[in-house]
Amino acid sequence: MLGPNDGLSIIVYGQTEFNVATRVKPDGSIVVPLIGKVQAQGKTSLTLADEITRRLVQGNFLRDPIVNVEITDYASKYVRVAGKVGSPGLIPLDRSNGLLDILLRSGWVQDVGSEIIYVRRSGTGKEEQVSTKDLARGTIPDVVLQPGDTVFVPPSELVYLTGAAVAPGSYPLKRDMTVSEVLAMAGGVGPTGSSGKFGLKRGDAKEIDVSGNEKLQAGDVI
Predict the structure, then answer these.
(1) What is the 3-state secondary structure of 133-167?
(2) Which end of the chain is less enclosed by CB atoms within 10 A, N or C?
(3) What pLDDT does 162 receive?
(4) Terminus-to-terminus CA distance in the chain, angstroms?
(5) How do strand 78-83 and strand 150-153 relate by DSSP bridges?
(6) 3-state DSSP call for residue 132?
């Protein structure tokens, strides 16, 4: 359905004086040569073409016109994508209204972005949590977005690697991540380290010895 600020190209074949490129005005109307004001908001490109055809015939301007309306810019229908994606901003729903496609058009989630993202609905203000990993694998249905919805990708929670690793530092926490996986991201054990010994400090608890298969939580220090 068309809405304010959507861009249109109207072509009447064989009658170039009727051709026009325009935008839907804030009141939902457009102006067509000779016909004047035509309501466009709420119509599809096909129903708008039918309305223009009817008005041309009714006004005795043309007997049997062939009218084509193309939508050049769906400015009235967009979602907001914010946070840790390649290109945050306003994404028009002109090609697809699926969350997977919108994320791809936004440059996908950055390495420092969280796997769990949020979709806030414009109509209700409710938030939905979505796993981008499950979304990309197709293990959950794609999320259908509506105009005005907001997609937010927060920074990933972190775990911290210290000691005799090749590249100690902070690393984004992924779902079911283990000590061994973080160590692999860090380039492995350094020349003075032992691959069989890992210490884990979680919160205020004392450091404990763990294996490489230990699953990590946000804020863990290895």
Answers:
(1) HHHHHCCCCCCECCCCCEEEECECCEEEECCCECC
(2) N
(3) 92
(4) 54
(5) parallel
(6) helix
Distance CA 26, CA 3 (A): 8
Dist CA 41 CA 222 (whole Å): 58
In degrees to the nearest 10, what's the CA dihedral of 94, 99, 104, 107? 100
Q: Strand, helix or coil at 41?
A: coil
For the beta sheet containing 116-120, the strands, ordered from the edge strand earlier in sequence to the opposite edge, are: 89-92, 78-83, 150-153, 116-120, 127-131
Q: Tell me which H or E stretch contains 99.
A: helix 99-105
Least confident of 78-82, 187-191, 199-203: 187-191
Name which of 48, 42, 50 is nearest 1 in CA terms. Answer: 42
| Helix (H) and strand (E) counts in the chain | 4, 14
* pTM of the model as a whole: 0.68
Separation of alpha carbons 133 and 116, rounded Å: 8
What does the block give as tokens for 97? 């209204």
Q: Which residue has the tokens 């109207």?
A: 10
CA 123, 127, 130, 135: dihedral to nearest 10 degrees? Answer: 0
| CB-CB contact of 184 with 212 (8 Å) | no
